[in-house]
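Let's study today's protein:

:::
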Amino acid sequence: METALTEWRDKKVLVLGLGRSGISAAQYLAKRGAKVLLSENSPSDAGKLAEAEKLKAQGVELEFGGHSERALEFAEIVVVSPGIAPGSEIIRKLEEKKLDIICDVELAARETDAKIIGITGTNGKSTTTALVSHILSTAGHKAPACGNFGVPVLDELEKKPDYLVVEISSYQLHYTSTLSPYVAVWTNLTPDHIEWHGNLENYTEAKQKLFANQQSNQYAILNYDDPIVAEFKPASEIFPFAIDGTDVSSGSVVEDAVQAAFMQNGFLSYRIDGRTQILCHQADLKIIGKHNLENALAAIGVAAVLQIPQEKIVEGLKTFPGLEHRLEYIDSVNGVKYYNDSKGTNTSSTIKALEAFGDEKIVLIAGGKDKHTPLEELVQCIAKHASDVVLLGEAKDRFREALLASGFKNVHLSQSMEEAVETASQIGEKSGVLRLYCPFAALV
């Protein structure tokens, strides 16, 4: 067992939430001698009871159906699952007691000497996290992808990694206080999770917390094509990346960028220590779309500051297969190509997915749960890239009204995913266009 950096024996820890991160935190702390009470707000069911039995066997106490007064009195420190909003009653009560309220990523950062590569952003976090891990692993480093993507970060500590490549959501960042990653990546920012954070300013500030404790000998990999990200000036050393209308290589826009990752005549490139390195052509990548070029440039920035050999960066870029459910090519049936982008959980990610197909028309499945975000930009993109749209779920009526109001007429309603797939398939086979499976059903 790895020796914890903190003495946990007999320390009373309240863990809120029986999700992946809560279970991981409870197991980690109980194994190190802490007295752990895991409090779950929802009632127990068969699945929760099965997890509860495993935790009880490890000495964890549990309660279901609400956070009790005993839980409030029990806590010396609190590890909170990221889905619990800051304005909730339990958080307000814990804050009144002046308790240290942290997430599992903050806990892991306090518990490890491994260098942390923290990756955040509205979109592209998971792909960038997986790609950075892939490049570092290709170069021979033990660098697991974890956090909000993959396995909980605490599960990786005993494996003694060289690097922890951690996807960190705005929810998790809200509950950090000392986190100081050696390399911090901000992929982009568009309005999202406003209902949780309260407003866009709070959401932006949560993202910026990834950099709050960094020093000048640490690195910030920033997307200079994003106006909000580009304006941010952390204390750490900035390594920008950019594509659109930005010739970073000549410094025409990023005048002081003595180091940067950029596109040069279709080739992914970077400059560091005064030397420009050309890596590979964008056609060599297995992942498609402009947004994935941004993700690749962000990963190149990480590899560059970690001084990964150029040939290993190229090998990693060329062999990275992409992620399931993210513009994932499934099959070709009767001349129609099927793609699964079911992780496209907001309008901006769906726009990027649509743009990835260039001039090829697609049939889009969309709908599901509705975040009530503005649809104007998405509708304009659909009109440019889609021949037909098949809608389902609670959002379908609002989506339909927005599309029809814009003049887009080829809108089809479905009562189930099965019906939507069948409708889209029939349209695709008649017209010969691509079909992109890109539902909003995963929205939370």
Notes: Confidence is low (pLDDT under 50) at residues 439-444. DSSP finds 16 helices and 20 strands in the chain.
